[in-house]
Sequence to fold (795 residues):
Amino acid sequence: MLYYSGHTKRIGNVDEGSTVTDFLPAERARGITIQSAAITFHWTPEAWLPQYEPVPVYNINLIDTPGHADFTFEVLRSLRVLDGAVCILDGVAGVEAQTEKVFNQARAYSIPTVFYVNKLDRNGARFGEAVRQIASKLRIMPVVCQIPWYDDRGETLIGVIDVVNMRGLRWVANGDGKDLTIVPLPEIGCSKPKLMEEAYRARTSLVEILSEEDETMVENFLEYKEDHLAVPAEKIWSSIRRCLLVPKPRISPVFAGASFRNIGVQPVLDAVANLLPSPEDTPDPSFTTEELSGGLREFVSGKLALPKSLPKQTGKLATRKRASYSDKIADLEACALAFKVVNDSRRGILVYVRVYYGSLNRNAILYNTNLQTVEKMPRLLRMYAADAVDEVSIKAGDIAVIPGLKHARTGDTLITFTGINPKTGPPIPFKSLQLRPIDIPPPVFFAAIEPHAAAYQSAINASLDLLLREDPSLQLGENEDTGQQLLSGMGELHLEIASNRLIQDFKAKATIGKIEIAYRECPSYTTSVQDIVYESTLASIHSKAGCSASISALVPEEMQDPRLTDGNLIVVNGTSDEGSETNFEVLSALRNGALAALARGPTLGYPVSGAKVSLTFDSAVHQFGSLTSISAISGAARKATRAVLEASAKISSPCLLEPVMRVVVKVEESTLGSVARDLETSRHGVIESLGEFENTSDVSLSGMNDISVIDLQRVYSPPDPFESQTADPFSSKPQAIHGSRAIIAKVPLKEMVGYLKHLRSLTAGRGSFTMEIDGFARMNKQRENLVLKELRGDL
Fold:
């Protein structure tokens, strides 16, 4: 695209690491897209054709997004600010799992999509099968605008048949794609009559599908005496565009090509310019304030009705105030959404913004309505992947980059306002005006960050703050039990890239490793009462106190006791003066002492949970006059609890408790059984329920709501090379799309470490899951022995 538009002088190659938009070292080393890259270029439709007639020049803002499932948040935040999309399919693989997920995300944002079936030059490429999969898996009606044109042997792709204009486009073999010829369809029919007949069938299907969606096409069809071939090409393009501009498009045009052979790229660019919406054609961006909600364009035009509660007064004064309130709308200069933050090694912090209203001007004062902060914008850039050009102003619909902002984050709304007060910000309601935020999916993969030394912790934290500001789908937490700092993300590759950036780019002196599982110890033997006397001398001050204790495992009836603390029940007997301040201090000291002893188990050093400790403090026996202080009582309780813990462990080893997660796994019905069996058998989980997946809050799933199944009998798809002539691709009944199913289970945390990769293999990449801590559960002896061997290094 960049080469044909004149932006670059040569065509880059992903395998060689020479593409413009994949400029990170990690991207070039791996041959994949890791972070989205923005670039702006100009395109003149049909200027590449020999029979070119001057048409307007279009300004295209292109964002190249990743295709790997681990970087789904990069796709989400890009879709949030885009008006249209080109979905590239592998002609051999067809619609893959990640294609389904990303397309559903685009559908949730009502983004019209153009399909480009690529790699049709490879052995085994099947354009017709890809078209059928668009209908069956994505549940949208494909409108075939091109069909592939192979040589006489059906092996080499030489061009495409333009079904709309009823012509052949033949590219020069092994060229750069700029040399091609337009071949009239009758001329093609002389040597390949079947291909011409197929073009007629494709054109007939195209007009019929558009007639079902567009009333104007019906009128055109009748005007040309119901002749599918007589309808002019420009009327067909206009009809496709009208169908794509509706709030929830039900069709998608499909194009064919082979980018590696430089075949078919220019028609896709024409489709982007002619079919996909301009900023004025998109739905009105939604916004909210403390008092208002609605469409931004409707609001700034004064058409949005203001609530009667603004202001609360009535009469002439209220009318004047409401008029003054409306007049302030004219002072709004620009409104933009920050959708990405990047830490550039040369330019510092770069904030990518999409301008939704007005013009963003250099040196303007920006107000962040999310953080209620004011910052000046000294520079304004337009990005060309890794390169940047200074701009004086960026208008609505464009993508800009603001360097040097200290506070802006992904999803923040930024506005400029005439006469804004740098200290107080804009007036109400603009102070709270916020555009629709960007949804952040929950993390599913975890790793631990260990500093090389405690002195490096503050520098590591600063680097992590930058990393998390760049990528909010990364989350940082701390395991209170193990003390480990945990970094969580969308997958193994996602965390691997984040770790490389942290260590190599930010030079953090840390090690990224596996998370430690926080087990618990539980007493398995009930001890007799032990009487302990505690003595201590500190700074020449002698203290002495006594205490009696016994310990046992909690029974099920005691699990719900409101007095439970950290999973343990402390019962104190024998104190006097109930309700007095002294008695309260003694009770607190006894409980705190017992809890301190339970913080470390007698066998493996894990905290104790599921224990019932009975303490007895008899003032006649355990109090020694002035020598007995509150701290001495606490020490006695700690020593007594520790003694009964060790006594119980000598008689019978404590059992181990492990953290258990409540896991919700979303799968297709075809893989429901295998995933459920895996959770129960291999992962020692307990299935709680199997049901329909109803989480419509997930933007990656909500796009499928209320979408009907496509009848494959109505879908046109050309025959693929070497396809069996006797086989009818539509002989079976229309494929029904089974709804997503949700498996809710309780699974040990240890078994969920690295589960994402295993789930993807079980579900062909279509499964996903979320989890949260549910509590601790006792392990069976076999599993406990395996864990003990692993902890001791015997495995």
